[in-house]
Design brief:
191 residues, alpha/beta, 2-enoyl-CoA Hydratase, Chain A, domain 1, two-stranded antiparallel sheet, 6 helices, globular
C-alpha cells in the first residue's frame, strides 16, 4: 500500500514488538529501505519489549560521509542511515516499549506521530505467575520517569501529532486512513 501511495519513494517498517522478533524484523526491514526519501514506522499493536531506545538511536544516527570507489559507486558512512523524513503510526493497542517509542520519537522532534493515543502501560513486569484456572498474574516492577524524575506515559499514553481514528468499516473496505495520512504527511516538505 505504501509503494502505491508514494510511488515507491517511502519505505515502510512494521514492528509487532520491541523484543527479539521486533529486533529481527527491524534489521530485516530497515537496511533495504535506507535509499528511500522517507520512512513510515508502524507500531500499531506493538506489544512492547526492551529495544525501543536502540531503534531510536539507529534512526537518529547522522550520516558522517561517503565512500566513492573508482567506478563511482557511492556507499554511505556509516553503512546505513535512516531516510531524512520519518513518521510513526500508533494506536490504542501500542503498549510498554510501544508507548515509549512514539513518545520519545515525538519528544525528540524526529517526525510526526499519526494515529491514536497509545495504551499507557509502561511498567516493566516480572515473570507471570500461573494460576490454577490457566490465567496468570503479573507484578509491575518499574516506573518510567523523565530526566527530571517526573512520571511519564503511564496511564496517559503517547499522544499523536495528528489524530486519525481507525474504523472496522475502513478496514473492511480495504482502506487504512492512518497509514494513508502517515504517507501523505511524511512526503510533505518539512519547514
Amino acid at each position: 500500500m505504501v509503494d502505491r501511495l508514494s510511488g515507491g519513494k517511502v519505505g515502510y517498517i512494521y514492528l509487532s514488538d520491541f523484543a527479539e522478533l521486533g529486533s529481527e524484523d527491524f534489521i530485516r526491514q530497515f537496511y533495504p529501505q535506507t535509499d528511500k526519501q522517507a520512512l513510515v514506522i508502524d507500531v500499531r499493536g506493538n506489544q512492547g519489549g526492551f529495544t525501543s531506545q536502540w531503534v531510536l538511536d539507529l534512526l537518529r544516527r547522522p550520516r558522517a560521509g561517503s565512500f566513492i570507489n573508482r567506478e563511482g559507486a557511492v556507499t554511505a558512512l556509516p553503512g546505513a542511515v535512516a531516510p531524512p523524513a520519518l513518521t510513526v503510526v500508533t494506536d490504542i493497542f501500542s503498549m510498554s516499549d510501544g508507548d515509549q517509542f512514539p513518545y520519545f520519537f515525538r519528544s525528540w522532534g524526529m517526525g510526526e506521530v499519526i494515529g491514536e493515543r497509545t495504551w499507557g502501560g509502561v511498567r516493566g513486569i516480572k515473570t507471570p505467575w500461573p494460576l490454577m484456572d490457566g490465567t496468570f498474574v503479573t507484578v509491575p516492577k518499574d516506573s518510567l520517569q523523565d530526566v527530571n524524575g517526573a512520571a511519564i506515559i503511564e496511564n496517559r499514553g503517547a499522544e499523536p501529532d495528528i489524530r486519525v481514528q481507525d474504523s472496522p468499516g475502513d478496514r473492511a473496505a480495504g482502506r487504512d486512513p492512518q497509514l494513508e495520512i502517515a504517507v501523505q504527511t511524511v512526503m510533505e516538505p518539512r519547514h
